[in-house]
C-alpha cells in the first residue's frame, strides 16, 4: 500500500476565495490565442516554472504520461515551421472538408505559420502511451489534456501569450525532436509576447448560464 502524507491544504475565508476566483477569471478572460508574436526574448525560467506547474496535474494512476519539449533553437524552430506548413498546405488544399474550412474562415487562418519561428519559444507536449519500459499508461489523453490546461493557465497568469497549434498529422515533431517511439505529439504551443499591434478575432465566450447545469 502506498505511504501517505498529511494534505497541505489551507482553508480560506469566503471573501478571499471570491477575490482569488475573480482575479483568476480576469486572467482567463484576457487570454486569447495569439498568432503575432514579438521576437523579444522571454524569461525561460518563468516558462520552466509554468511547465513544472503543468506537471502537477492529476493523471491516471499517477503515471504522469507527458513530456514537454521546450524549443528555442532557431534552426529547430525553422524545421518545425517548414514541416508544419507542408502539412497545413495539404490540409487547406484538400484534406479538410469544406464544412471545417467554413468554420475556420472567420479566424483568418491559412497554411502560413510564421509564428513558429517568430515566437521565442515553442513547447511541444508529448503524450506517453506507455512507460519507457513498456508498462501501460491509463487515461493518457485525459491526463495530458489536464496538464496542458494547467500549462496554458500558468503561462497566461505569468504574463505570456500562447497559441494552441495542431498541425495534422504531427508525427514530424517526434522525428525533429528525436523523441522515443512510445511518445506521440499532443500539442504545439508557441510562447512569447504579442506584437504591439497584435489583433485577434472579435469573438465571445458562452455565458455562465449556457455552460453550467445546476440540479
User: How many DSSP helices?
Assistant: 8
Count the beta strands: 4
Q: What name is given to the CATH topology?
A: NADH Oxidase
Query: Which ranges are low-confidence, i.e. pLDDT below 50, for 5 or more consecutive residues?
Result: none
Output the CATH class name: Alpha Beta
For the biggest β-sheet, the strand order reads 1-2-4-3
How many structural domains can be distinguished in the coordinates? 1
Strand proportion, as a percent range, falls in: 5-15%
Average predicted local confidence, pLDDT: 95
Outline the structure in words.
There is one protein chain. This protein has 215 residues and is α+β, with helices and mostly antiparallel strands. The protein has a single domain (33-195), classed as 3-Layer(aba) Sandwich (NADH Oxidase), CATH 3.40.109.10. 42% of the residues lie in helices and 12% in strands. A 4-stranded antiparallel sheet has the order 1-2-4-3. Helix 2 (44-54) runs antiparallel to helix 6.
Can you tag this structure with a few keywords?
single chain; 4-stranded antiparallel beta sheet; NADH Oxidase; 42% helix; 215 residues; alpha+beta; 8 helices
Fold topology:
Layout (H helix, E strand, L loop, with lengths): L13 H17 L13 H11 L11 E6 L2 H22 L2 H7 L10 H4 L2 E8 L11 H19 L2 E2 L8 H6 L6 E10 L15 H4 L4
Antiparallel strand pairs: 1-2, 2-4, 3-4
Helix pairs in contact: 2-6
Amino acid at each position: 500500500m502506498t505511504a501517505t502524507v498529511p494534505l497541505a491544504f489551507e482553508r480560506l475565508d469566503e471573501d478571499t476565495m471570491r477575490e482569488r476566483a475573480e482575479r483568476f477569471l480576469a486572467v482567463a478572460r484576457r487570454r486569447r490565442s495569439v498568432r503575432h508574436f514579438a521576437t523579444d526574448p522571454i524569461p525561460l525560467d518563468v516558462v520552466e516554472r509554468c511547465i513544472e506547474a503543468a506537471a502537477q496535474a492529476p493523471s491516471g494512476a499517477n503515471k504522469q504520461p507527458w513530456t514537454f519539449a521546450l524549443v528555442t533553437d532557431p534552426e529547430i524552430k525553422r524545421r518545425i515551421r517548414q514541416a508544419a506548413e507542408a502539412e497545413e498546405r495539404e490540409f487547406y488544399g484538400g484534406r479538410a472538408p469544406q464544412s471545417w474550412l467554413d468554420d475556420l474562415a472567420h479566424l483568418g487562418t491559412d497554411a502560413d505559420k510564421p509564428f513558429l519561428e517568430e515566437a521565442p519559444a515553442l513547447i511541444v507536449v508529448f503524450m506517453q502511451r506507455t512507460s519507457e519500459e513498456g508498462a501501460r499508461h491509463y487515461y493518457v489523453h485525459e491526463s495530458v489534456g489536464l496538464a496542458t490546461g494547467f500549462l496554458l493557465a500558468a503561462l497566461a497568469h505569468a504574463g505570456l501569450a500562447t497559441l494552441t497549434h495542431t498541425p495534422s498529422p504531427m508525427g514530424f515533431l517526434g522525428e525533429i525532436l528525436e523523441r522515443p517511439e512510445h511518445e506521440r505529439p499532443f500539442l504545439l504551443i508557441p510562447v512569447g509576447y504579442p506584437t504591439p499591434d497584435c489583433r485577434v478575432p472579435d469573438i465571445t465566450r458562452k455565458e455562465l448560464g449556457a455552460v453550467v447545469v445546476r440540479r
